Amino acid sequence: MNDASPQTIYLKDYTPPAYLVETVELTFRLAPAATRVVSRISFRPNPDATTKDFVLHGSDMSLLWAKIDGAEITPSISATGLTCEVPNAPFIWEAEVEIAPDANTALEGLYMSNGMYCTQCEAEGFRRITYYPDRPDVMAVFTVRIESDLPVLLSNGNPTGSGEGWAEWHDPWPKPAYLFALVAGDLIAHTGSFTTQSGRDVALNIWVREDDIGKCAFGMDALKKSMRWDEEVYGREYDLDIFNIVAVDDFNAGAMENKGLNIFNSSAVLASPETATDSDFERIEAIIAHEYFHNWTGNRITCRDWFQLCLKEGLTVFRDQQFTGDMRGHAVKRIVDAIDLRAFQFPEDNGTLSHPVRPESFVEINNFYTATVYEKGAEVIGMLKRLVGDAAYQSALDLYFDRHDGEAATIEDWLAVFEDSTGRDLAQFKRWYQQAGTPRITVTDSFVDGTYTLHLAQETPSTPGQSVKHPFVIPVAVGLLGQNGQEVVPTTVLELTQAEQSFHFEGLSGRPLPSILRGFSAPVILKQSQTGAEQAFLLAHDTDPFNAWEAGQNLARAGLTAMILDDAKPDRAFLDALRLAIADEEKDPAYRAMLLALPSQENLAQALFDAGHTPDPDRIYASHKALREAIANHCQAILSRLYDEHQLTGPFSPDASAAGKRALTNAALRYLSLSDGPSRAQAQFDTADNMTQQLAALSALLSIDAGRDALSAFEAHWSKDRLVMNKWFALQVASAEPENAVAVTEALTQHPAFNWKNPNRFRSVVGALPRNQAGFHRADGAGYRLLADWLIRLDAMNPMVAARMTTAFQTMSRWDAGRQAHMRDALRQIATAPGLSRDTAEMVDRLLG
Ligand code: ARG
Ligand code: ZN
């Protein structure tokens, strides 16, 4: 145990822990530069172990003393842990270590944020707090004593005592160390309460700094809704007397599901109408639900090892998506999830970072908290549900909770539950967990004598380390439409299991128009040749709202492709179809707002690359802009009517219906600013009483280069609100012209309020650049160099965030030789930076291929 150099860890090498832990008692004497942690841990040999070596993880701490069964010992210590001789029987380990939370800039383990102490232990942060078997299959009952002069002292479980300068907590539910949490600070609580279905009262608290107390009501409401929903839909009740949420300003991720003490990035919980947009409200509701749902899918049933991360994350994302659909409408939610999957997971799955939903090896597990593990992991569960049906899904989940409660489980356990409860063989389905890459499904069809035949062929491109791909089981939801748009065959789920397969529909009176992959029934790329007329027909008539939207996107994409490649004019058929669709008062406003959003520039680059072209980001940018102008002019009258007719009066409400109207008027406003100039947007900016409308107006002004004054007014008004200022920074980078984006980003890094050590602020400036596609991919490589310089600097402070941001380079192979060479240079520059972290080194290594 004296090797600190990076090692690859393999799923196939899993061995059970040599020692199990019964109970853990921890005492914290908090001090910024020298916190003392005393531990008392009862170990016993694991009867299933294959070794007797006693190894505890630990780093960035000094050991003051250690005892086994009361006798002082001298372990052998390395940079990553310690070993020593132990009895071949149950024994008590005691130790005291010293750590320095104020020097912890990685924000893993125990660290400080604005004078408060907090922790982040997933995945392997607990080993920076004390020596411990820091692996998720070691589950133990924790008792914690905190000593500090700070007024609020929190840990997991239920409070068991407190006094002047101390507090004690006991968590009766055995848990892995990654779910440990501690918070100490000068905080106040927004309180609430919840009565569970069996009648137990639970105290609810959202702990914040005094300034933020007005931003908690929405989160509290979302928490109660989540608790109720999990009871009603999954039969899962909360299991402690208290549930605490804490908002933290410096946080690497979105939030963390520590047992009974969820810790949130303040951006993922704090919201008021004045400071948060409708998308913030929706995101906050979803993240609160997500972390709460982890109590059963993650905490009560946890993961055997980190390769099984999707067991908790895929399932919990799937559950939070169901929840949001129930709260806000399933049609729009499915579209939003598909857009996100295509924007974040598809590029990952089709680039050098491609990996299976359950990876088979890693160097640094923090690098695998990815869209593939989370979002594709959720898609895999959605497919499983579609294949077995809703009732069978519910019985399987009941069996899962019954069988594995209190355990650290695997994907094999998860699939066995479905096999045992449904009798279905899931051997082929398991490939979704093992094979990386996005399957392509090519569609051909024929119609003979009243029989319509769909022929589906699947193919998955090779990915790093996986050159051969075997066919997946793919649920393809299909409906058939007749001449007048009536549904001649309602939605049917075809099971595509072979490389090629035909499906027949008999007894039809005429050739139908197929609507394929309804509801985005599988995370695949569909290749079908549709005419513009067919796409326009589906946009107008498809009874499946997802595919109607999809048809509009396909029509837009086809037109844009012709503009990009062949200098075509904006497609008149698309403009007419869009105008018709948005005027349809049967369609709800949120849905019409989705129709008005064009495929993103990133989406176009990916589609062009897929079709064998080398995308040119500048041409994509210019065509996108030209089509938006054409829409603005073509639809001016209806857009102006929609803008006026969907204005809301009365006090702001973040509910889905009001948010949908704002989404529609704001989408219209953006176009109307192009056709009619800045006056509407300026008026909306001046009178807005909520952030949704203020920010949309500012964004519309910036998009026509009329936002200078509004930008300063916004800054002057909001300079003290960190979360709002993040928007101010990010919006400027996002709306910069391609040739200015690097300079704008650079200038903002000189702004006095730019604090690169705060992850949210860093992400809203430097992290915003890659999302400005044409700006980041400037042909001279200046965007790549700027990002590389900053990532090298950040890596020395915060490896997790730096490593994550290298994903901006994952689409390297998509671009022309000149850009590829610049990207490669930037990556090499990062790779050779002195003292590079293991996190970033692994990423750059994979990116360079
Ligand atoms: N489990 C947390 C969640 O999904 C995220 C933890 C992120 N940790 C990390 N090392 N990236 O809610
Ligand atoms: Zn999660």
Key attributes of the depicted protein:
about 850 residues, alpha+beta, Immunoglobulin-like, Neutral Protease, domain 2, eight-stranded mixed beta sheet, five-stranded mixed beta sheet, 31 strands, about 20% strand, binds arginine, binds zinc ion
In brief:
This protein is of the alpha+beta class.
The CATH class of the domain at 9-186 is identified as Mainly Beta
* Binned strand content: 15-25%
Give the ligands present.
arginine, zinc ion
What is the CATH H-level superfamily of the domain at 9-186? tricorn interacting facor f3 domain
Could you give the order of strands across the largest sheet? 6-5-9-3-2-12-15-14
Shape: globular
How many strand units?
31
Per DSSP, the total helix count is 27
What would CATH call the architecture of the domain at 9-186? Answer: Sandwich
| Category from helices, strands and their pairing | alpha+beta
Helix content: 40-55%
State the end-to-end distance.
30 Å
* Unreliable stretches: none
Radius of gyration: 27 Å
CATH domain fold name of the domain at 9-186:
Immunoglobulin-like
Q: What average pLDDT do the residues reach?
A: 98
Largest sheet: 8 strands, mixed
GO molecular function, one term: alanyl aminopeptidase activity
Domain Peptidase M1 alanyl aminopeptidase Ig-like fold: 437-528
Cofactor: Zn(2+)
Domain Peptidase M1 membrane alanine aminopeptidase: 218-432
Report on this model:
This protein has 849 residues and is α+β, with helices and mostly antiparallel strands. Among the domains are: 9-186, tricorn interacting facor f3 domain (Immunoglobulin-like); 302-434, Neutral Protease Domain 2 (Neutral Protease, domain 2, Orthogonal Bundle); 440-522, Aminopeptidase N, middle-beta domain (Immunoglobulin-like, Sandwich), CATH 2.60.40; 719-849, Peptidase M1, alanyl aminopeptidase, C-terminal domain (Zincin-like fold). It has 27 helices and 31 strands. The two termini are 30 Å apart. The mean pLDDT is 98. The structure holds arginine and zinc ion. The site of arginine has 11 residues, from strand 20 and helix 2. It is an enzyme of class 3 (hydrolase).
